[in-house]
Amino acid sequence: MHLIDIYIQEVTRRIPEKNREDIALELRSTIEDMLPDNYSEKEAKGALASLGNPALLASGYADRPMHLIGPRYFDMYVTLLKMIIPIVAMLALIVVITENIMSYTGEEAILGTILTIVGHGIWGMISSLIQTFFWTTLVFAILERTDALKDKTPLTPNWKEWTPDDLKGIPYIKKEKKISKVDIFGSLLWIAVFVAVYFNAVHLIGVYEKIQGKLQLVIPTFNQDVLYSYWLIVLFALLLEVAFVFYKFMAAQWTTKVAIMNTVRTVVSTVVFIIIFNENNLINIEFYKYLEHLFHFTFELQEPVKVGVILMWIVFAVIDVVQGFRKANIRG
Predict the structure, then answer these.
(1) Model-level pTM greater than 0.85?
(2) Alpha-carbon distances, residue 261 vs 22, 134, 256, 325 (angstroms)
(3) How far apart are CA 161 and CA 275, in angstroms?
(4) Helical axes 71-103 vs 231-251, angle rounded to 10°
């Protein structure tokens, strides 16, 4: 019948061409099994109605998702966006405010300066949020299409209706083992602040003086060239840190795997810190001279001080690793 042909056409046109012929034969056989030998148009309509919308049925036959982000990852995607967006917006606004305050000479009208900050701040936040939304969506879209173990959804032919018995296979997570959203938010905020400060230390950290009505950084604390020289290992540590935060977010609880990954990223960050902190030219020589002139005392990053700071870092790192395994071993 003409209606059946159109229905099959509407299903198969939405799936890859290489599978269309086989699926068309299978679907036609299914429809014919639902109908008597001499069926009427009304009976054909009933059979097609029971199969449902052709677009939804096609999504079950397709070998790729027919949605950008499916139900398995959608809640996670929205939650992560809610965490990242405030951080990005806040950092963008802080950068704009800082730039305008430091460039303010006192000659401009205060109202004009405030309006400039508001305008630049809004534009900076919108631009940052668009990029954040794009890259986060891209990551989840790729994850949706590369995960071979994603759950069956109501759009797939083999989907089984949920029942309370399905809860039996889900373990109960104790409060001590849970990884809170506050923890994830704090980790992401720390990463964002560290990146902003590390790669702009020469413009942010140091001695400020007011010159011709403008507050300017005259003596940076750190040697930016030294910090830049270690960008590769710092970037590696940051990527590992981001991967760990993302893995924690997906795991939602402390497990042995999470604790092991926490150990790896802690060891890496500790090694990177020791390498950079041991650099003799890390602190700007002019900053030492400023402190000596200000306090009339010789300042220098001596070996005992370096060793003390490194040991303190290692102690906190060990505590963090031990706490991770302790949480992972808590019984439900």
Answers:
(1) no
(2) 45, 27, 9, 11
(3) 56
(4) 140
